Amino acid sequence: MNIYIILENANRELEYKIILAKKLVIHGHKVLIGEKNELRNKIKKLPPGLIIEKGIRKGSIDRFKEWKLKGHIITCFDEEALTYRDDRQYFGTNCDKDIEKYVDIFFLASRRHFDTVKRIFHKKKLIIIGIPKFELLKKPLNKIFTEKSNEFKKKYGNYILITSRFGNVNYNQRKKIKQPISIYGNYFLDSKKIFEKFKLIPNIINKIYPQSKIIIRPHPSENVGTWKKIVKRNKNCEVIYDDFLYAWILGSKFTIQNRCSTGIEAFMLKKKVFSFDPYYSRYPLHDIFSLIGKVFTDLKSINKKNIENKKNFNKLSTYNFMQYYIHNVKKDNSFNLVVKRINKVSEKKLTNKKKINIKFSLRDRIVDFKNRYFDLHFGFKKYSHQKIGNFSKKRIKDILFSTDFFLRTRKKIKLNQVGKKIFLIQ
């Protein structure tokens, strides 16, 4: 079966989506993986297949209708389903009216996610699989980051990682994002206030650990330049938005974050993690962050004694609690659940069984060359380039090669670039 996997951000998604693609190829499928805007546009002209969308955001329904008319099967992940505040926010940003009529399978992050979306989706369409990228936090796949994390440690020493999630206030675009109170409540105003204090943390940490390098990792939607201005006088700080996040977490001394899935990811990698949140008590998911590490509610409490406290947060009870939010936090394997469900989909549903016939056209090659070297300095193109990240044939090859041992396969897999940011794996 032809399978089309849509990707938005390579620095956050590429590893796990290539592993999923590899597993699907092992089961006899052909996979086309591509950047969301380019692949969504190409799908209109491709033979019917099974689409794995990255989300179900508002504004999706028109293309879903079009894909259905072309005979495609539509399945969806929801990669933001871990940290939504409540049902009001979820439905305020997701699920156009009648979207459930066009989705064949909705892969869910957790029981909590199920309890939210069952209000509009038929239960037969809902499959709880967890969060696929979290499989990379568990053995044996977490070992694929060891080499890279060792490189970071060799280069930066015993560094401290500060991850920022303030794309909603530290915009990487001139156009501001609408965040109405009717949907987000006080989240936007709280984020603005928290960011003003969070900006001071690198200098505080530098005074506590003057011999340690501090790496600041912005959110894909953030203005990296803002962070560079904040720490420009601190030679011990570097702002870096490169490579998959897990290698950075694995190599760090500890991680500091605010209301970010990075904290949970660091916890699952058995790394020490701290939260900074002055409005901790009014954040609906505060219980999760209090279980994975110490929460600093003010800047004064960030001191060496509190940081080096030996309290053990990595307990079975924490994993049991988190399973309501992340189905695969313990044993279940998201990749296997997805592949198993896709294998059950009958190709009889597809009106056309033509093979994928797509080529990297001369026009696309020219545009790709221009985008790489000339047109990415301003506006939306700069924002888009940062958000996509390193999505290259070489990187995909490296992932396919590095996972051979862990997936215990010797199947020869072919990789071809067939678009600016589209690759065929078979």
Name a few traits of the molecule:
6-stranded parallel β-sheet; 20 helices; alpha/beta; globular; 14 strands; 426 residues; 8-stranded mixed β-sheet; 13% strand
Protein described:
This protein is of the alpha/beta class and 426 residues long. It is 40% helix and 13% strand. The protein contains 20 helices and 14 strands. The protein has helices at 10-26, 36-43, 61-69, 87-93, 111-117, 146-156, 181-184, 187-198, 201-208, 224-230, 245-251, 261-268, 286-292, 304-307, 316-322, 334-344, 362-373, 379-388, 393-402, 404-407, and strands at 2-7, 30-35, 50-53, 73-76, 105-108, 126-128, 160-163, 214-217, 237-239, 255-257, 273-276, 295-296, 415-419, 422-425. The strands form two sheets. Strands 6-5-4-3-1-2-14-13 form an eight-stranded mixed β-sheet, with helices on both faces. The chain has a six-stranded parallel β-sheet with strand order 9-8-7-10-11-12, with helices on both faces. Strand 8 (214-217), helix 10 (224-230) and strand 9 (237-239) form a beta-alpha-beta unit. Helix 1 (10-26) packs across helix 16 and helix 6 crosses helix 11 (245-251). The protein is globular and about 65 Å long.
